Amino acid sequence: MFGYEDVEPLQLQELLQAENILLIDVRTPTESARGGIPGARNIPLHLLPLRKQELSDDRTVVFYCQSGNRSAQACAFMTSQGRRNVFNLQGGILAWLQCGQPVSTGYLN
After folding, report:
1. Tens of pLDDT, residues 13-51
2. What sign for the dihedral angle of Cα 99, 42, 106, 61?
3. Cα–Cα distance between 99 and 8 in angstroms, integer?
4. Between 93 and 107, residue with greater pLDDT
């Protein structure tokens, strides 16, 4: 066990409505420019070790990528650093889109 949990797209939609979560897209800027989950912030996976201090310790964090693999790596890294309340969007943005959820362009970097 890596200390994080997977969340399905519809569960994420519920979390977004109910909680003040940090939603982090770990795809590259080129990938994220094609669209992402509204309210997400882009921190590419390779920059996460350098920018981890930007993620508030008191908020739940959900990571996502294209298919869920890189975001799982982000979750494993953050939990190895002692971070709690970390979730991975299972299936990534592809699963999000398959469920008919909205996407937008323009991120906070």
Report:
1. 999 988 889 999 999 999 998 899 999 999 999 999 999
2. positive
3. 10
4. 93
Domains and CATH numbers, the chain: 5-98 (3.40.250.10)
| CA 71/CA 77 separation, integer angstroms | 10
Catalytic residue chosen out of the listed positions 24, 45, 65, 78: 65
User: Residue 83, class by beta-carbon neighbours within 10 Å (0-12 exposed, 13-18 middle, 19+ buried)?
Assistant: middle
Q: Does pLDDT of 105 surpass 70?
A: yes
And the tokens for 30? 């080129």
Does residue 99 carry a catalytic annotation? no
The model carries a pTM of 0.92
Asked whether the beta carbons of 67 and 90 are under 8 A apart, the reply is no
CA–CA–CA angle 21, 25, 30 (5° rounding)? 155
* Digit-coded pLDDT (tens) for 74-83: 999 999 999 9
Q: List, as one string, the DSSP characters of 35-71.
A: -B-TT-EE--GGGHHHHGGGS-TTS-EEEE-SSSHHH
